[in-house]
Amino acid sequence: MTRVFSGIQPTGIPHLGNYLGAIRNWVALQDDHECIFCLVDLHAITVWQNPTELREQTRQQAAVLLASGIDPVKHILFNQSAVSAHTRLGWIFNCVARLGWLNRMTQFKDKAGKDRENHSAGLYVYPNLMAADILAYKATRVPVGDDQRQHIELANDIAKKFNHDYEVEFFPEIEAFVPPQAARVMSLRDGAKKMSKSDASAQSRIDMTDDADTIALKIRRAKTDPEPLPSSPEGLAERPEARNLVGLYAALADQTPEQVLQQHGGEGFGPFKKALTDVLVARIEPIAQETARLLGDVPHIDAILRDGGQRAATIADPIVTEAERLVGFLK
Ligand code: AQP
């Protein structure tokens, strides 16, 4: 059975972009894949995190994933720092990856902005650790949003160079699995920016724990333009905010943008935003309620993560020990 690995940073409450770009595809893959899902707390601290909040957010992420349908018994859910294989292989990959490769990573450029010198070295080598996360399990399929495509290509370059440098066929090729719809959900305040946990404006995103009133308010305030909706997707070309809202509706209603516009073309944003709010509330409210219920039993969440960590280590430890042996470490 194909092994799937994917991760999410416990840097805040998961939002609609995380859900549509990643989490709901994770849930679907569980039917016919062996899945390993990871709360990547090592990645989270590439930007400083308040320690108490990091612990809380890790549990909250776990609760949202469980509430969304992740099965921690048939599959594995754990937090990254619990399995030392990630950092052991991450260091080897720091020595395999070339600086030129990392210099091309657009996510680092976006996150560091102009103030590059003041960011952590961890943020810069983040893609090497991400490659280690996946390859420590020899996972071959990685469901991610569109923003992570470049990191998966880099992981494949690292795997190939390791195999070449040590004259082995040890690490497999990885395939990014990007959803056909809503692979890049944009901010509700700016159609040119992706929806992000770290955006200073809470109005820019729908959190997976928002209640119906909060969702309705955020959608009412979402930036749009004065024109009515067009009757086909071509009419959205120069209208990023309208395109984002139509894309959200389509992803949530399991329709194509064409179908959405056949139904809603010609409408003003007032009625369309109401219809969008309805599909959002129908999807998010049950997840938010189940998340709140799960968070009432923190020891249960901790036990799930502990068990997942132990099972993950059973897979990763022998693979990484073999990689260390290939490199020439005394074992
Ligand atoms: N806006 C998005 N649209 C579609 N997919 C998205 N993902 C993230 N944002 C969007 C996908 O969610 C998964 C987990 O992402 P992450 O938490 O590891 O990191 P991120 O991409 O850096 O997400 P954020 O929300 O922007 O976090 P911060 O603000 O902390 O950096 C990934 O598969 C990602 O593609």
From TrEMBL:
**Motif 'KMSKS' region boundaries:** 194-198
Alphabetic keyword roster: Aminoacyl-tRNA synthetase, ATP-binding, Cytoplasm, Ligase, Nucleotide-binding, Protein biosynthesis
Q: Note the SUPFAM superfamilies from the entry.
A: Nucleotidylyl transferase (SSF52374)
What positions does the entry give for L-tryptophan binding? 133
Q: Where are the transmembrane segments?
A: none
Localization terms from the record:
Cytoplasm
- GO terms, molecular function: ATP binding; tryptophan-tRNA ligase activity
**What family is this?**
Belongs to the class-I aminoacyl-tRNA synthetase family.
Name assigned to this protein: Tryptophan--tRNA ligase
Q: What is the lineage of its organism?
A: Bacteria, Pseudomonadati, Pseudomonadota, Alphaproteobacteria, Acetobacterales
